[in-house]
Each structure stands twice: as C-alpha cells, then as structure tokens.
Records
---
Amino acid sequence: MLIKNIKLLAGTREDNFLLRGKQLAKLSCIENAFLIIQDGLIAAYGKMADFAHRDNDFTGQVDASDQTILPAWCDSHTHLVFASSREDEFVDKIKGLSYAEIAARGGGILNSAKKLNAASESELFNMAWKRLEEVSRLGTGAIEIKSGYGLSVEGELKMLRVIKKLKEKSDLLIKATFLGAHTYPPEFKENHSGYMDCIINEMLPAIGAEKLADYIDVFCETGFFSPEETETICKAGMRHGLKPKLHANQLNLSGGVQIGVKLGAISVDHLETMDDVSTFELANSGTIGTLLPTAAFFLRMPFQPARKLIDAGCAIALASDYNPGSSPSGNMNLVIAMSCIQMKMLPEEAINAATINGAYAMELENETGSITIGKKANLIFTKPIPSLAYFPYSFGTNLIDRVMIKGRFI
Ligand code: NIG
Ligand code: FE
C-alpha cells in the first residue's frame, strides 16, 4: 500500500534508542511525505520529491494531503481488565473522602477485587475487549495490561488468562504484568507474610508454568507493600523470568524508585511524589520513569514533576493507567494534552514519551513506537491540523481521523 502526499509524517527514526533529557524534544518529521506498507510493516518512507516508484506498483493507495501521520500510541501502564466501574466512590471523593479513606473502608482495589472474583472469564474478556477496541480507536496500538484485581490464586490466574486471550485475538501488541501484590486481601490483612507466601509459592509457579505474564509489578506504597516486601516479591518474580515494572512514589515517597533502580526494573511508574535523591537515582539508571498524569488529575494530586525529571536526564514515558479507581480513561490523547498543559512538556516531548519511550517501557521498541523501516504499520491519521502543537493544544477534541494497526485501517 502507498500513502502519498502526507502533509506531515511525524516520528520518523532511523536509529532506535531510549530518549532521555534533551533528546526527548527531538521528533523528526518529514513534510510532504510518502509511506509504503508491505505485509503490515513499514517498508519505505521519504519525501514525495524522492518518490521513485510508479503509482500502479501498488495494490492500495491513500492520499493524505491534509493529514498528519504519527506512530500509534504505546500505552505502557493499564489495568484494563476489570469487572465494574466505581463512580460511587468518585462521588464519595467529591464529598470529601480521600483515596486512602475509601480503601480503608473496603472500597478501592478491594471493591474491584470482589466484583472481579464474581465475574466469569468470558464476561471479563468481553468487557476488556470493548475497552481495547475503544482505546485502539483513540490511537493506541500497543498496550500493557496488569492483573491485580484478583488477589486470590483463581482471581489472578483468571485475569491473566483473559489478558492472554486478548493477546491471541487482538492485532494490538499486548504485554501482561502480574500485580498480585496490588493490596493485601481482607483475609490476609493481619498476615502479610501469609499473602507473600501465596504470591511466591502458589501464584508465581502457576503463572510461570502457563507463561501468563511478561512482568511483575508491586504497589510499593505506605499502607500497601513496603520496599522490603516489594523487593522480596520482585526477586521471586524474577526467578520465573518476570522483569519488574513497579507502582512507585504515587501517594508517598515510598522508596519504590530506589528498589526499582536497584533491581534493574524496566520502569517505575506514577512518580507523583519525588525528591532530589529519587530523581538523581532514576536519572542515573536504565529504568524508565513512567508518568500517569490522568491518575494525578483524577485523584486531585499534584502532577508528576516532568520538567524536573527530564532536565535531570531521566528517560520518561507517558501512559494512561486506565483503571476504574484512579484513571477511568484510556485516552492517550488526553494524557498527552495534560502533560503539555499541566506538566509543561513540549508537544514533541509528550509525543516521544507516548510512542518510542512507551515502546521501550514494554520492550516493544523493535516492533513499534516510531516510523522506522521494518516496524509494524501502527499509525494514527489525524484530521486536518495546522501544526503538531495543535494536537495537545486543542485538548478534548478528537483529532484522529483513522487508525491503522498492522497495515489495516480499523
Ligand atoms: O495505578 N495505585 C494503584 N493502582 C491503581 C489504582 C487501582 C484502583 O484504584 O483500582 C493505580 O492508580
Ligand atoms: Fe496503575
């Protein structure tokens, strides 16, 4: 397929590397470009002036004269499998209760766990499938999905089997993360070591045997899992081949960033609460800092200190955290707009953080995240926009005309 006369082809990249510091602002673009797709992959691209083929060499042709084309979003942190929404808690929060207070009353994650354990695998699959379709129409082409609403052997395995089925049936690139350590279930409230044993000796061996997960996650947070517990669980996961991707420093300076860096985690995610030491350690590591601004927005927390992190030399990714409790939206366009508006990221920085760096945060950098020969043709075709900056500027407007996944319009 030939796509020709593209007004702006953004995110072209010949060499693949994780962007940090000043590199994040470099988004290379070609005006009046062409793009050739073969077998679902990007086969060639360049300036129209250099287009050397004949039009009838192609079976399909698209004229994109008034369109900008971008790599599809790489959303590296979601909890997209869940059984029910939680807008009742949303109203409780409006009335003044905090996230921690709601959790202490058996709401929050425990509320989601109760509903998930009551739902069947096929019900969960159908709900998750709809959400996956919804986010792909919003431009997401690769996504990480966590367990963590089971909190029981059967519940966690059920969630991971749903994610496995999504991987098999969907054209999106999907990675699965085991988050059994999301919170302590009520029966283990006073017996933390009992739940740790269950994770380490029951859940992980079953997950390893069925190859149900790529990564291990722990909610390292005051009132949830301590840094020591986080380290123990991650090390057990690593023995089953699962690399850590952690929930760190969301509500407090939890020590999660340090543990993640020490264990060589792929990413430490959230980072609403950062100090100079954590920032410095992250900047001097190979671990990616994944920022989830819609979660900060929804919980009315201070936004992540993106500018400070970028200027310190950290490698930053952006993700949606799509989940029923702290970010009931998987809209990456909104994530990007919020990052520019509230965290003062440049449009180029936000787009890079949501594409190539997001791909790195799922180890999918050789398959997606940029317009590069040999990568999947996962592309966003915008409606007519005057410039790239217009995209985050015009927040709340759907500026996506069409989305292509593996060379096919969805
Ligand atoms: O990433 N912080 C922990 N986990 C989720 C929220 C889970 C929930 O409230 O259901 C998050 O924000
Ligand atoms: Fe999360």
Note: The CA atoms of residues 68 and 134 lie 21 Å apart.
---
Amino acid sequence: MSKSPFQSPRGTRDILSPESDQLRFLIEEFVSLLVSAGYGQVISPMFEDIAVFNRIGESTEIVTKEMFDFFDKDPKRPQHLALRPELTASICRAFAQHRPITPWKVWYAGPQFRYEKPQAGRYRQFLQVGAEILGTPDPAADTEIISLAYGFFRKIGLQEIKILINSIGDNESRKRYNEELVNYLTERSSALSEQSLMTLKKNPLRVLDSKRDEDQDVIAGAPLIENYLTEESKEHFKKVKEGLDLLEIPYEISPRLVRGLDYYTQTTFEFVSLSLESAQNAIGGGGRYDGLVESLGGPQTEGIGVAIGIDRTLLACQSENLDLDAQTRLEVFVVDTTGGREALLIADELRQLGIRTDRSFGGRSMKAQMKAADRSGARFAIIIGTDELEGKEVTLRDLRGDGQQITMSRESLGRDLLKLI
Ligand code: AMP
C-alpha cells in the first residue's frame, strides 16, 4: 500500500475503534458518577478570546508557549482567539457571564489543545473530563471533588494510583512564603536553569514545578510552604484531609506540589499512575482557584475543580492490563445463509433487547460469514441455514473457547439469550 500524502498533524492522531470506544467508555464512567452527584454539563466553545486563557497565568508554559492562537476574519477588528488549552478558565468566564446560582456544580468533557513536544502520553490534542464547584469555600467541596475522581479510578479498576495533595495557602500565606522563597532562590541563582531564573522573576512559587535536572538540588532544599500557612489556610487543609480520612481515601502530602497553572490557591492535588513513565504519569489533577472568576470580570467567587486526562488514563489501564472492551464488545453475530430476511429480523429483535448484535451484508457464503463473525469479536454466532429455518430453530455457536454448538428455539431466542449473556 502506498503511503497517503496526508497524515494527521504532528502531535495528533486518529483514534479508531476499539481505542475510541474505550475512551468513550472511560468518559461515560466518570460522567455517570458526576451526574449521580448533582453536576450538570457545560458545553462551552472550543476557542475563546485569548485574554481568557492569559488569566491562567503569565508564567505558565501553557500561556507563554503552548497556545494555538489565531485572528478571526473580521476586516475591521480581528479578534485574537485561541483554542482552549484547558477548561477551567472557560468555565469561570461562563460563570462571570451568566451568574448562575451557587454552588454551581458542573462537568465538561472534550478535547484540549496545547502546542507541546509530542511524545508517548503527551499530545497536542488530548481529551479531558473535569468537574468544578463554584461559589463555596467549604473544604467539603475539595473533598468531594477529590473523592469523585478517586472513585472513578477505582471504578474502572485501576490499582496503582497515588493521590498527592498539598496546600499552597491563601494570598496572605503565599505572600509570606514568597518572600522567603525569593531570598532562598536568589541566593542560589547561579545553580538554577535559565528557565527557572525567568520564572523566579514572574512567579517564584512556580520554580518548584521545574522538572529540569539542574534545578532539583536547589528545589529539594527550598523552604516548605506548610510552615508559612495562615491559621485559616491550615484549618482549611486540615478539614480537607479529615474528609479524605473519613472516606478512607489514601493520600500522600507532597509539600512541593504547586502544579502547572498560576491560578491555584489553597488545596492542590494530583493523581499519579505508578504504572506509567514518570514524565507522563499524571493522570489527573486540580485544586482551588478562589480568585479566577474575579480576574475574569466576575464577582469574588471561590472554585475547586479536577481535570482528568482520559488518554493517559487509558494508557494506565493498558499498562495494568484492564479489560475495558467487556462493555462495548459485540455479543452476537448473525450468520444467515437463507437470503438475509432472518438476519434482518433477528438483529433488530436482539438490538431492541439491548444485546450488542451485528450481521454481514451481501448474501455471502457460510464460510465468509463465519469468518466475519470470528473477526467481529462477538462471543456467539447465531447461525440460520435452511434446516434451521424449516425447524423454526437457530444454531448458537460459542466463538470463544472450544466452539460448542447448541440448537435453540427461534421463538424464544431473545429471552434465552438474555439469560446466557
Ligand atoms: P492540567 O490541565 O495540566 O492540570 O492537566 C490535567 C490532566 O490532563 C493531566 O493530569 C494529564 O493527564 C492530562 N494532560 C495534560 N496535558 C496533556 C497532553 N499534552 N497530552 C495528554 N494528556 C495531557
């Protein structure tokens, strides 16, 4: 086969079945938890005024380097737009625009875009599902968000996950801490990478987020924010931890977890898969962002949220050998050598009963249809030849295992199959 001249753009991929089905399954599993906890969906635009995303923070690489931005075609006043690199900023923009009743509990799902260096588990278009609660400072909201994400990872069967949490305090805590941190880092500036020296000027806290080798010694000895938290921030963090303890959710305190976005306050957390390479092992994360709505022109409104990376969650499932196809795999394939009338009727009947069923088209030979049945991944083939048609029966063949066959009544086929599957 000659290679097609067009390929999907660098850092993106066409996701075909069964991988696409598995991703959809993962999204649905999380969404069903969110719906049962009172969250409603927000569908916001894929692109926004770039200024909305700039609020994510001028010292984050997402803003400085990774935005897919463009101007629209308005000849007089072209608007500077960008594809969304994440959804929290859009949700807060929507909150400021519509002023819904609080607490506003919402979820979203869809692709995000970042101009990153592509590698395994790091794409320029990737899927996130997330949840946000706006309008309450209650630490129970932080606990709820973390527990829902944890519940999702457990529900799909992931075992090797770790929750890292930290508090970066309120503004007052961070002001106190920043002074100490700047002194510490400035004294050691000759040992820091050039990138971190730039970050130091814009947002010193974010230097702690550096993954560069040369920065690690300095970061390891840096003062810890927990020693600078105000009483209120300490109390907030204590309540979040107590909530997690009550729900028996295991976590690890990670005193240097500041996360990649500038807007966080108080609680920050990350879900790590121990079965993935460390550079791409974050499968979800989030935190509080009590000032973001205000920075987007809305009223002072607290917020807490989580975003789960669905592509990476799937990689984690694969490396833990989880079977995600069980709920999407075909159950029955109908093989009809009598002209196709029976295939039409049986497929329709079984689908109405919720049995995942396929059939072949084009009146092909028994051999060709059986091959198609094998390839389809279905558990059973239902075979109708002239003998079966005359005897008002069908033959049921187990396509896995030893290929056992039994004869079943055509009339009670649907009911009998439901018992079997
Ligand atoms: P963030 O918005 O950076 O906190 O990311 C939340 C989650 O999205 C991460 O934990 C990852 O699982 C996922 N994620 C972030 N960037 C990428 C990317 N470039 N490719 C795939 N997944 C990503």
Note: The mean pLDDT is 94.
